[in-house]
Design brief:
heterodimer; A: mainly alpha; 16 helices; B: mainly alpha; about 60% helix
């Protein structure tokens, strides 16, 4: 066996992607906050001409949060976790380092250009798949480079067994590859119109109901393989490592993994309930959505049980607090989703703000909390410095937790009010309310949501400041901490 | 009639999935009981993750040799 006494892990790629995670997180949440304010106070739509309208900024918000913040977080944590659980350093392969660096720069430049293109209004007009075809090609190249890195690192590993997190990252890679390729099949209008259209503007290869089905198979599974699978992979590493407790049941983690992968892919048609897709497909979407509770709660309960006998850490270590709350929000979100996918509930919930509430208790409470705790865990190890301020983390935690609760409760009330008002009829069967009546009724909840967004953004800025101060002025540590992350009081 | 078929499909699909799920659980427990696998030891992979931590399952010597060449 090769001597690896002097060998150490190479965190340069993890550091670079961490920087992008923070940058895109801030941008995505800043735009999100402006959007929330625009819905409460419509005059804010006219601040920046065409570039500041809700319709122009909304795709920017979603794409930056999904493809900017979350995907960077996935890359950053992979380049950290991957090496550690496979017990191999990126330093051992010049090829993989070069591939990783090309991936980073292509991603950074590509993402910035993609942001500009959406701001200019250049779009394919498919939700979460707005990028025009040249960007789609860049995305595919970046993804293939990442795949090369995953497979390459696995190929040169010392540890034969692949830890459960690696399985989740592999699933993320394979899932997104398949979804992205199929949903983004498009043809430039130049070719479809016999030379009249544009070479750079394309339209989907599918049409009508088929297009909707492919779109929502993609849309829902982008949540599955972007917001769920890799984030579960993160918590399976970071919570046991931070608490010093091995995962409660490895068997349960395997069961949840295969369950999640098998069930999730079939649930997308619940987005098209009461629409023109075949009835059986809607039923299938509903069945599989309800079944999803099993693998989702399997992972979440496994995380809670990992803390068995060690619950005092929840009061002592703010990172454990973040991760346990993330896991709890994952449970909330994955029971809420199936409820919304039941036909009768969906009849009220569809197209209302309850759906927006659902997405945000998942993303703000689960995805962002988990990625932030991952960065808090990795930073002292990557920069060999202790976290700058515990007080700041505590304040951030309570500010953001309150913000998430305000966000989803206001949207639950707004959504159900909206759904009920749309359906309400008088004794003659006439609609009781006009659209503007619902808008007036929802205004207070939109204001609450705006306040929640500002609070959450403020919390994220505290996180950014804390990380910045850690890297530049945190107390240096000589030895890498084994479990608990060192945080200055 | 269509409604009935939908109900039947719902129940049958759920039933098949439940059987598959329990089948997998059974498989996991049986292979552990028969000594074929000890799944729980893999939980340590996250804790002992220094580059010089002992490996839980080493790659076969021939494979490592190939890698190092």
């Amino acid at each position: 066996m090769q001597s690896n006494a002097a060998l150490e892990y190479d965190y340069s790629l993890a550091k670079k992607f961490t920087f992008l995670t923070i940058l895109f997180g801030f941008l995505g949440m800043l735009i999100g906050t402006l959007l929330a304010a625009q819905l409460a106070f419509p005059s804010l739509n006219y601040l920046l001409g065409e570039y500041g309208t809700f319709s122009r900024l909304r795709p920017l918000h979603t794409n930056i949060v999904i493809f900017g913040f979350t995907v960077s977080g996935i890359f950053a944590t992979w380049f950290y976790i991957g090496q550690r659980v496979l017990k191999v350093s990126l330093k051992e392969s010049k090829f993989l380092m070069t591939v990783g660096n090309i991936q980073f720069w292509l991603y950074f430049v590509g993402a910035l250009l993609a942001v500009v293109s959406l701001l200019m209004g250049i779009t394919e007009s498919k939700e979460y798949a707005q990028f025009e075809w040249p960007f789609d090609i860049v995305v595919v190249i970046i993804w293939v480079l990442w795949g090369l890195n995953i497979m390459g690192l696995i190929g040169i590993r010392r540890e034969k067994a692949l830890y459960i997190s690696v399985w989740y990252y592999l699933a993320c890679f394979l899932g997104i590859s398949m979804l992205y390729l199929f949903n983004n099949m498009a043809l430039p209008t130049y070719f479809t119109s016999g030379g009249l259209g544009s070479f750079f503007h394309s339209v989907s290869m599918y049409s009508g109901t088929n297009d909707a089905l492919v779109q929502w198979w993609y849309g829902h599974n982008a949540v599955a393989f972007g917001f769920t699978v890799p984030i579960v992979g993160m918590i399976y590493y970071f919570l046991p490592k931070e608490s010093g407790q091995p995962v409660y049941s490895y068997k349960l983690s395997l069961l949840s993994f295969w369950g999640l992968l098998f069930v999730y892919l079939w649930a997308g048609s619940h987005h098209l309930m009461w629409s023109t897709v075949p009835d059986w497909m809607q039923t299938m979407g509903s069945v599989f959505s309800v079944l999803l509770i099993l693998p989702s709660w399997g992972s979440a309960i496994n995380m809670l049980l990992t803390m068995k006998g060690e619950w005092q850490q929840l009061t002592e270590n703010p990172l454990i607090k973040f991760m346990i709350l993330a896991s709890t929000f994952y449970m909330l979100s994955t029971i809420e989703g199936p409820i919304q996918a039941v036909r009768s509930v969906n009849a009220i919930a569809h197209f209302t703000d309850w759906i927006i509430g659902h997405v945000h208790d998942g993303v703000l409470g689960w995805v962002v909390f988990m990625i932030m705790s991952a960065i808090y865990h990795m930073t002292p190890r990557m920069f060999k410095r202790e976290i700058y301020s515990k007080k700041l983390i505590e304040t951030q935690f309570w500010l953001q937790t309150t913000a998430v609760v305000l966000y989803f409760t206001s949207m639950w009330i707004a959504g159900i009010t909206q759904g009920m008002m749309w359906r309400a009829v008088d004794e003659y069967g006439n609609l009781m309310y006009s659209f503007i009546d619902t808008v007036n009724a929802l205004h207070p909840y939109y204001v609450i949501r705006t306040i929640a967004a500002i609070m959450y953004l403020a919390g994220f800025m505290m996180f950014m400041y804390n990380i910045y101060k850690t890297v530049t002025a945190g107390r240096e540590i000589e030895e890498e901490p084994q479990f608990r992350t060192p945080i200055a009081a | 009639m269509r409604e009935e078929w939908r109900i039947i499909a719902y129940v049958v699909t759920s039933g098949i999935l439940v059987v598959m799920l329990y089948g997998y659980i059974l498989y996991l427990y049986r292979s552990e009981k028969s000594g074929k696998r000890d799944y729980e030891k893999y939980g340590k992979l996250a804790l002992d993750d220094e580059i010089d931590s002992p490996v839980i399952e080493d790659k076969p010597a021939s494979e490592r040799y190939k890698d190092e060449k």
